[in-house]
Amino acid sequence: MDxxxxxxxxxxxxxxxxxxxxxxxQLLREAQERQLEGIPPPPKQKITDPEELRSYQLRKRKDFExxxxxxxxxxxxxxxxxxxxxxxxxxxxxxxxxxxxxxVDHRNTAVWLKYAExxxxxxQINHARNIWDRAVTILxxxxxxxxxxxxxxxxxxxxxxxxxxxERWMKWEPEEQAWFSYIKMELRYKEVDKARNIYERFVVVxxxxxNWIKFARxxxxxxxxxxxxxxxxxxxxxxxxxxxxxxxFIAFSKLExxxxxxxRARMIYKYALDTLPKEDAKELYKNFTxxxxxxxxxxxxxxxxxxxxxxxxxxxxxxxxxxxxVWFDYVRLMENEEDEEAIREIYERAxxxxxxxxxxxxxxxxxxxxxxxxxxxxxxxxxxxxxREVYTAxxxxxxxxxxxFAKIWIMLANFEIRQKDATSARxxxxxxxxxxxxxxxxxxxxxxxxxxxxxDRCRQLYEKFLQFNPSCCTSWVKYAELETIxxxxxxxxAIFELAINQPIMDMPEVLWKSYIDFEIGQEEYENxxxxxxxxLERTQHVKVWISYALFELNAEENGAVDRCRSTYERANxxxxxxxxxEERLMLLESWRDFEAQNGSEKLDAVQKLxxxxxxxxxxxxxxxxxxxxxxxYYDYIFPDSEENMPNFKLLQxxxxxxxxxxxxx
Length: 665
What we know:
This protein is mostly helical. It is built from 34 helices and two strands. The chain has a domain at 56-139: Alpha Horseshoe (Serine Threonine Protein Phosphatase 5, Tetratricopeptide repeat), CATH 1.25.40.10. Strand 1 and strand 2 (627-637) form a beta hairpin. Helix 26 (473-485) packs parallel to helix 28. The radius of gyration is 39 Å and the shape is extended. Involved in pre-mRNA splicing process. As a component of the minor spliceosome, involved in the splicing of U12-type introns in pre-mRNAs.
């Protein structure tokens, strides 16, 4: 009865329509807005159990596959799925997902890029090459693929492959920037002729005047003014009078002006003004006027322009006399006037502004004012006496107890050599070494004496240099090489012996290699063998062992193969006692190659020593020291290692129990 009364009370009595009607559209909009509200992220989950990890991976894969079934064409789902598989170190699965995504939309550039970048991140270079090759074949107009492909090959040092890729790209006649990238790559490796050939093809594919100008400037920089002039002449023949532009005439005339061919530049300006319409030659008129101001008969106007610039420089220097960049510009302006006294006055005013702080970084720009001043006196003014005075005054000004500039000492010494005064040059460098010894000064002094064939002086300098810096390996090696060239083998050997006994060396591997190569070059194989033994007493590095073995193999003595094999056996026994598993694997691979090349029956024995590669797990730590979960890594198990011996732990426990029994008795 109570239930019936309650049911009757909750029935709707008023069935009239509500005054405000709610539509289905409003309901959907409200639901969408609630979905967009900020939902706190789920808590972070730490997985420490393999079963839990597999369950998590299975659940995530099911979610990703469900999303793909809902909307197969949404490539973002494919990318997220593949990225997640990569984060789980499942590279093969990630690769499979990318391939499935490409089957859906093979023209999507993002999928190709992410796919290739994943392979490069995991150092799968051949896979990355395969992907880039497929991408540029399917989408040859996607420049980003070509850029990344060539960049990858260049970073790997595979320049011929990068060049081939560029050539494939150029067959499609891409945009201008692609050609410039190709040219810049060739110039980075000093391939000027190849860059020139590319420019020849480029100006045909993109026949813009600006490209011809760039071609001419390239020739000016790498081929000389004559080659640049030929490019401008070809450009004029290519365009003819009807399609010519004022910019190429301006660039051509500036080239001739730079080459001091003022009459040729004037004729180019006049020809252009006669050929081009006036409305298309505004900049041409302006540049011609400026040219005439510089080199024509209008000397009065030129004087006014120069005076204006001088006033501007004077105002800047009045506010900041230590702005050395302004002094450089001021000097260049005065050098165009060809007034030696005026130039000398500016230099004197400039060098009078000594830096206020005695720190080397504040003096660097200032010292170059002195250098330019001395070069001006020597090369332009032809005043040798004043040039020497400038160098001397500069050296007297530098606080050598705090810092020095080896460049000034060396330039003054070379200046005296040009004046055929070797004695003064020696005094200058000797004074420099006595007051402020530096490695650069010693090397320059030694180089000077070598050029003068004063080998006894070179020996004395090397001895002082090595007393100053006994840890410099290259100096020891150079000293020994000098003695070798002079035929004093015993002296060279003594130098090497002193060097290897030094307690501290900057590059000991270079020194030992040079010493060993020296003994091999003298065909003193026993000495070289003794050196290897000494080196192995200091280090058991695998590269030393391999080098020792190869030395024994290449030594022109009987039984070289047996000695080489014996060295490999010693190395294997030595490395077996250490934890350097990767180094031992490197040694065994070298040993295996040696046995294979010599057709030995012991190849099978070496093969049996090769380890098994297994995957292990270990705890990882974050940078802050917190637990980072588990990570997988690869380890090597050698057949003769204790870890691979049966019942190893049982034997250990038995031995421990026996020792306890003996102690108790």
